[in-house]
User: What shape does this take?
Amino acid sequence: MLQEIKFNLPSASDPLQVIGRGLDLLNDPWLNKGTSFTLEERKALGLSGLLPPFEADMEEQVQRVMENYRHHIDPLDKYVFLIGLADRNVTLFYRVLMENLLEMTPIMYTPTVGYACQKFGHIYRKNRGMYLTLRHKGRIAEVLGNWPKDEVDIIVISDGSRILGLGDLGANGMGIPIGKLVLYVVGAGLHPHRTLPILLDVGTDNEELLNDPLYLGMTHRRVHGDEFYEIADEFVQAATDRWPNVLIQWEDFTNDKAFPLLNRYREDVLCFNDDIQGTGAVALSGLLAAMRIRGEHLSDQRIVFCGAGSAAVGIADMICAGIADEHSMTTQEARELVWMCDSRGLVTTRRKSGLEEHKLPYARDEKSANDLLEVVKRVRPTVLIGASGHAHTFTEDVVKTMHKHCEQPIIFALSNPTTKAECTAENAYGWTRGKAIFASGSPFSAVRFNGKVLVPGQGNNMFIFPGIGLGAVCCGARKITDEMFFTAAKTLAHMVTEEELNAGTIYPDLGKIRQISLAIAAAVCRLAWDEGLARYAEPEDIRHYVREQMYRPDYRPYIAV
Assistant: This one.
């Protein structure tokens, strides 16, 4: 018998019993419907006289919100406005986002969320999520008990140490878990009531924040080593004790923590790291779609990376796994197609000083090269991937040198936010006479070149992680595997239409994100059931089953108790 999934509330047509009345009800963002309360509800729930007499439907409320939203010009002001809406009316907030997805995603997430994190202590209005600090050590289970929801499907947690390409933002990094969970709800239909953003505040080394009188985090230096992992272990134990099936997403940790955290828990805890695995999957998907444009195979490519951190290694690992799977190669043979550069040049085994552990698989036994241009001249790459966090590293010389030996160079400038991109879409197209296949981490506008409109792809992790999370929750996955991300990448690549490929874009329309997440979630569920990794019994129609779990932001009728 199929085990019931309870992460979604009943349908919008089912009456909801509420205990709160009057102003208490209007001040509860999870229950408030504002001017959409009916006359009968107003009489029964003590709302008579507390609202304007007109009964608005949700579409009228959306219209009013959008009119006020568009009065704001500055993206940060728009972000604050939307967060304020969520603090008043959660259902309306998600309806507005879903109906204006392409316009608002860059506000609620990259690039605007980076600036919102930098200013987080200055724009703070109301609690969203939880903060765990060293003061809570030894009683984190008690602290998590303060969260009022007894059912949580997903936690996104960060320590704020490497926010996008902006570095250590300490407790200000809370904007990232909040934003990621908004994307889970909008993009895949996880229920907002069952999501929990957490900031693990173990200090900051950011001098500007330590000297900022409005900074809201702990004002001591970051802790490392055993002290850090002791509190991480305690968090994982407490979270999984209270919510045994919860999915934990590690987000925006520095390289020296990101890989160890993932490897420490991945076999025993339902968890993943989006910076490593999600970024890898979305980049692999873009390359698979680019191979459709060029009529080639991944095994034919020479791939140069600018950047050798968690994102770069995650991408390289996923690409090599894809090459090995598709072409009957070993992973080590696939790695021979990859050259990785960090701030010291080409990563080689001949360096006099030691290499970080995560770089070792990609250290090549060849002479060193001091800069990216020298590597490009030597390797003659067909693919250039930027995950460095440094703007303008794909210079005109680098791109033109690459283009000399490759008719359609694949150029991925993936660093976020937009100001950190290795080059712009206009640069990539202009320096290659419109021949580049370009993607970026943050959005760039279409470019007109020689009478043709070229549409840059956005390698947005939103294409991948919401579907992974939805699939894991729907089937009750015991763990998240790299195979799930590989499956997600292939599913996404197959959803790019011929029309989109002809325009030079290698990702589908983000406006179809719910259909994309549904397809990925169903594929993840299928894999989990095939591999024996699911807790729940398999339904007859997986796709229908997953679709029925997806949250839709509709008001429900209320009755008093």
